[in-house]
Give the backbone structure.
Amino acid sequence: KRIMEAESKLMKTIARVGEDGYDGNDEPEPGNEKK
């Protein structure tokens, strides 16, 4: 279960990076909210 949870969280992070241009953090990079 723990591995699956980690994968799910990672996939959400990757999706967020792709959509919003985030650098994998909850906070957007300065001047890099949109690529």
DSSP finds one helix and no strands in the chain.
